[in-house]
Amino acid sequence: MNDELLTADEVAARLRATPRFVRRLVSERRIEYVKVGRLVRFEVDALTAYIDRHRVAPLSRTEQVLSLRRGF
């Protein structure tokens, strides 16, 4: 386990997103965070888990055809 805690700005930089987006993730409780007094911090493992949960795997050719037929 990595004990490093990241700020919202550091998380935003790693996600190549805005700090506002990270604050929204926190307010919607879509990412795990740690409260240090009034401060919000993020474990590196929590950021990795968030990224893994939102990973989209590519479809095979057959899956592409089937999804087109279903109207997705």
Keywords:
alpha+beta; three-stranded antiparallel beta sheet
Give the gist of this structure.
With 72 residues, the protein is of the alpha+beta class.
Q: Can you describe this structure?
A:
The protein has 72 residues and is of the alpha+beta class. The protein has one domain. The chain contains 4 helices and 3 strands; from the N terminus they run βααββαα. The protein has helices at residues 8-15, 19-27, 44-53, 61-70; strands at residues 5-6, 34-36, 39-43. It has a 3-stranded antiparallel β-sheet. β2 and β3 form a beta hairpin. α1 crosses α2 (19-27). It is elongated. The N and C termini lie far apart (39 Å).
User: What fraction, in percent, of the residue positions are helical?
Assistant: 40-55%
Q: Strand tally, please?
A: 3
Largest sheet: 3 strands, antiparallel
Round the mean pLDDT to the nearest integer and report it.
Answer: 93
Low-pLDDT regions: none
Query: What is the 3D form?
Result: elongated
Oligomeric state of the chains present here: single chain
Beta-strand residue percentage: 5-15%
**What is the helix/strand order?**
EHHEEHH
The neighbouring-strand order within the major sheet is 1-3-2
Question: Which structural class should the secondary elements be placed in?
Answer: alpha+beta
Tally of helical runs = 4
Radius of gyration: 17 Å
The count of domains is 1
Terminal CA distance reads: 39 Å
